[in-house]
C-alpha cells in the first residue's frame, strides 16, 4: 500500500513519531511516497508494538529505500527517555549531554559521554555524562589551600533545571550545594556522604545563568590530601 505524505518533516518533529537511519538533507516541506509493509520491530528478540506519546500505534514505513521507525518506541524499549526540544528542532534519546554541559567550571570534572571509559559512580551506578564538583579546604600546617567546586550553565529562555546529585568517591564528608541565579542566592541543599542521591528542580525565573557551588565540611587533618570531597551532578535536564 502506498500513500503520499505531505509535510513529512513537520509531522516528524511534532509527534516524535519517526526516526530514520539516514537524515533528512534539508528542513522544510517535502512530499514523499511511502510504503507500508506491515513492518515488525524486534529489539533483543522481543517484538515491540510502536506507539506514540498518546498510546496510539505508529506503523513503520519505507520511503526511497529507507525504513523509518518510531524513535519513541525504540528509545523506551532500550530504557532511554525520549524528549523533543521545539526551540532547536532536536530529538533527544537518553541524556541530552550537549544541553547539560556547563560553560564554566572551577574545581570540577566534566563528563560529556564521548569517552566510553570515562565515568563517575554514585550509589554504585556509573554515569558517563555530568559534572563532579570538588571542594577542598585545608587547615593543616602543611598548606592553606581552599577552593569550592562550581559550575555555571547558560539557562536563558528555559523554565527550569532538574538534576540529581550524590556522593562520589571513598571520602566521608558532608557538604552543602548552593544555587545562584544570575549571581543571586536561590537556595541551598544539605548533602550527606552516606545518604541517598537527591533529585532537585530549580525554577529559573527568567535567569540567564545558574551556578552550583559545592562547599564541603571543614575537617582539620595534617595529611595534604585529606580534606577534599566530591559530589556528582547528573541526569541534568533544562526545560
Description:
The chain starts with a strand and ends with a strand. The protein contains three helices and 22 strands. The chain is mainly β and 239 residues long. The longest helix is centred in the first third of the chain and has 8 residues, at 8-15. It has helices spanning 8-15, 71-77, 97-100, and strands at residues 2-5, 19-20, 32-35, 41-43, 46-48, 61-63, 66-69, 82-85, 90-93, 104-106, 108-112, 120-122, 125-127, 129-137, 146-147, 149-154, 160-168, 175-181, 184-191, 198-203, 209-216, 228-238. Residues 1-25 have low confidence and may be disordered.
Compute the number of strand runs: 22
Question: What is the H/E order?
Answer: EHEEEEEEHEEHEEEEEEEEEEEEE
What oligomeric assembly is this protein in? single chain
Structural class designation: mainly beta
Helix content: under 10%
Please describe the biggest sheet, giving its number of strands, its sense, and whether it closes into a barrel: 6 strands, antiparallel
Low-confidence stretches: 1-25
Radius of gyration: 23 Å
* Number of discrete helical segments: 3
Distance between the termini: 40 Å
Q: Which percent band covers the strand fraction?
A: over 45%
Mean pLDDT: 80
Shape: elongated
Amino acid at each position: 500500500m502506498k500513500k503520499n505524505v505531505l509535510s513529512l518533516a513537520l509531522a516528524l518533529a511534532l509527534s516524535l513519531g519517526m526516526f530514520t537511519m539516514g537524515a533528512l538533507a534539508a528542513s522544510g516541506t517535502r512530499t514523499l511516497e511511502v510504503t507500508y509493509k506491515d513492518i515488525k520491530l524486534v529489539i533483543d528478540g522481543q517484538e515491540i508494538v510502536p506507539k506514540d506519546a498518546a498510546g496510539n500505534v505508529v506503523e513503520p514505513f519505507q520511503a526511497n529505500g529507507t525504513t523509518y521507525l518510531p524513535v519513541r518506541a525504540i528509545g523506551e524499549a532500550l530504557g532511554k527517555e525520549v524528549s523533543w526540544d521545539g526551540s532547536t528542532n532536536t530529538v533527544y534519546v537518553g541524556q541530552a549531554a550537549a544541553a547539560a554541559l556547563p560553560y564554566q567550571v572551577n574545581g570540577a570534572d566534566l563528563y560529556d559521554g564521548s569517552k566510553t571509559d570515562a565515568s563517575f559512580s554514585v550509589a554504585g551506578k556509573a554515569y558517563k555524562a555530568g559534572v563532579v564538583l570538588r571542594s577542598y579546604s585545608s587547615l593543616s600546617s602543611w598548606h592553606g589551600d581552599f577552593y569550592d567546586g562550581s559550575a555555571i550553565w547558560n539557562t536563558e529562555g528555559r523554565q527550569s533545571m532538574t538534576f540529581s546529585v550524590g556522593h562520589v568517591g571513598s571520602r566521608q564528608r558532608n557538604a552543602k550545594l548552593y544555587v545562584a541565579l544570575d549571581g543571586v542566592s536561590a537556595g541551598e541543599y544539605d548533602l550527606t556522604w552516606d545518604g541517598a542521591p537527591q533529585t532537585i528542580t530549580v525554577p529559573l525565573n527568567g535567569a540567564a545563568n545558574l551556578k552550583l557551588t559545592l562547599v564541603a565540611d571543614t575537617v582539620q587533618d595534617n595529611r595534604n590530601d585529606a580534606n577534599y570531597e566530591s559530589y556528582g551532578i547528573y541526569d541534568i535536564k533544562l526545560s
